[in-house]
Structures are given as C-alpha cells and as structure tokens.
Amino acid sequence: MKKVLTHGTFDVPHLGHAIFLQRAASLGDYLMVGLSSDEYAKSQNKNLVYSYEERFNLLSLLPYIKLIYKNEFATMRVAIVKYRPDIIVIGSDWGDRYFEQIGCSPQWLASQGVTLVYLPYTKEISTTDIKRRCK
Predict the structure, then answer these.
(1) Among 47, 79, 114, 116, which is least packed, fewest CB within 10 Å?
(2) CA-angle at 48, arms to 44 and 53, nearest 5°
(3) What percent of the chain has pLDDT over 90?
(4) Could you list the residue range(s) of the whole structural domain that residue 29 is in?
C-alpha cells in the first residue's frame, strides 16, 4: 500500500483545497492529512476563521482522505517517522523553501524512503483572496 502525506491549515476550505487533496490521493492508496492545530496555526501567524474541530469536520467529508491527525509539530520529522509515508505532497507555490518549513533536508527524506511531490497550485483560488473578498 502506497501512503501519501500532506499537511496544512485548510482554513476556509475551498475548491482549490479539494482539488489539491484529490490529486494527492490519486498518487497512492492511503491519503493522510496533518491538519494544523489552532495553536500551531496561530504560532505561524495565521488568523483562523474556523477552529480545528470545524476544519477537521469539513475535511472528514472528503471520501479520499483516510486519516486526519492533529499537526502540532514544528517539523515534519515526527509525522514522517510515525506515519511512514511513501510520498509527501505539497503545492508548487512552496518551492525549495518547503524544506526549511518542514525542518527536513532532501537527503533526510530520501534516507526515509520518502519522495516529495509538488502539485500545481490553483492560482485562481486562495484563502487569502476569499478572506479579502469577505471583508
């Protein structure tokens, strides 16, 4: 079974999130999502609209997500060691700065047997834009 892992805040879930998660699920057999806790999201200067529980309940409606866990980790190392993904998926808008964000080097990921896959970012849709339009 090929396990795929991604993570994010997924605040104000929208079509871009659903498309991204569906594409991530298509890369394997078992999609796991690390959903940022409220505390972790706030530590990253995110101004949340929805609570962790609300975001969890919304993502739980997507049938292709097999596991959602609370992401409270400063690095992805803990989740990678615990959940043993084959693939980590992230949006293409992250580029190389993603390694700094997750606290792992390409070499360390390779030593764990993990492949990093960038999926195209849906430029027409963003949480920031939705929040701006709502104001």
Answers:
(1) 47
(2) 105
(3) 55
(4) 3-134
